Amino acid sequence: MTTTISYPESVPPAVFTQDELAWAPWLEPLTEADLTDRHWAGLVDASRSKSPYFMLLAHDPEVLEARTKADKDIFYNPNGGLPRAERELSATATSRHNGCIFCASVHSRFASTHSRRRDDVQRLLEDGLSADLGPRWNAVKDAAVALTDTPAQFGQDEIVALRAAGLNDFEITDVISTSAFFNWANRLMLSLGEPVSAKAA
Amino acid sequence: MSAQHTDLIDQVLSITPGSRLDGLRRHREVARDNIQSAYLALFEPRDVTQVTLLERLAVASFVAGLHGQIVLADHYAHRLSLSQGGPVLAALLAAEIDAGEAKGPYGIYPAGPLSAENQAGPHYRVGADSRRLIGAKLSAALEHAHLLVFRPRDASREALQALLDAGWSTAAIVTLSQLVAYLAFQVRIVSGLAALASSSEQPVAANSDATFTAALAAGVNS
């Protein structure tokens, strides 16, 4: 009988943070010796064979490949739409609402780097979803949170607020895509392993 | 899938080529294509040795139903009902979806300052009659799916052990986790785009080229 992997020495983080964390899997990832061409294609970037998260997801390489390519286009495509900082804000608000401390740590750092509004990002992590981040960021945050509710509560109120804050429909579509995507990512990160201190990893 | 549509999201939202929503989706064409590729990887899988197609469609019907995303719930229930043994399963799942209804996300944080945000909610178990019909293995998958849908922060190593104990392999658990997580994504893309479709065109349409150029510049510089 297969058993899960445990980390009895690890003290998992108990607060949202912009500090760097590592992630440790509860199930056995593939090793490089297991990888066929199909798995390398699934990893997309060969360097991801060093990541236990991607090597665990490589057990289903076709889904991983599609997930990774969608992720990169939603977050990194520089052609118009929402500025990168606000895509990361949407990912951070979504992760804060679902409770993914690991995902929030990564994407709050990106939001801070790209916006240079580290203090505002930190208030979102510490004070939670009621933090007042100014009209435009509040509209993005509130829309991401509404879409993250289950069942999703995103509707005309959020669209009106986003437009009032100056977002066009390309930008609103990016709010939808980035928040929806983190409803995918949060559930994988939360359920297949745990955050651990970056030093311990 | 109908002959006119090669993309499931276009199909369920009746998005036609050249329409406003088509333009919004094609602005992120690589994402659009790979969202469909992920659907095909999960529901026209290359390898069904770890999770069968019937099991995949059953879990997807349950998850779409729990989200109240009617067009996708109908899509998966319909595909399930066309499978051998599917109609009985679809009827049973309709009752389990009602029994599993909740509002998320809720759950418990690690002890500390976040404990103030702990929120209780139902821990769903498959009904006894349903469990006798579908067995312990699929029941364990449905219970785990409910956990991921409504209280992802309650996910635990013990929850994965329960799946292993019920007979799911490591590779099967990866596929099931991707399936539930993908559905959580897919229902939100469909709900979000449906809301955008039913809102009138943005009032600044006359200036949309200027707005777009400004947004383009902002995106390139970010």
From TrEMBL, chain A:
<keyword id="KW-0575">Peroxidase</keyword>
<dbReference type="Pfam" id="PF02627">
    <property type="entry name" value="CMD"/>
</dbReference>
<feature type="domain" description="Carboxymuconolactone decarboxylase-like">
    <location>
        <begin position="61"/>
        <end position="144"/>
    </location>
</feature>
<dbReference type="InterPro" id="IPR004675">
    <property type="entry name" value="AhpD_core"/>
</dbReference>
<dbReference type="InterPro" id="IPR010195">
    <property type="entry name" value="Uncharacterised_peroxidase-rel"/>
</dbReference>
<protein>
    <submittedName>
        <fullName>Alkylhydroperoxidase</fullName>
    </submittedName>
</protein>
<dbReference type="InterPro" id="IPR023923">
    <property type="entry name" value="AhpD_Avi7169"/>
</dbReference>
<dbReference type="InterPro" id="IPR003779">
    <property type="entry name" value="CMD-like"/>
</dbReference>
<dbReference type="GO" id="GO:0051920">
    <property type="term" value="F:peroxiredoxin activity"/>
</dbReference>
<dbReference type="InterPro" id="IPR029032">
    <property type="entry name" value="AhpD-like"/>
</dbReference>
<keyword id="KW-0560">Oxidoreductase</keyword>
TrEMBL record, chain B:
<dbReference type="InterPro" id="IPR029032">
    <property type="entry name" value="AhpD-like"/>
</dbReference>
<protein>
    <submittedName>
        <fullName>Avi_7170 family CMD domain-containing protein</fullName>
    </submittedName>
</protein>
<dbReference type="InterPro" id="IPR023982">
    <property type="entry name" value="CHP04029_CMD-like"/>
</dbReference>
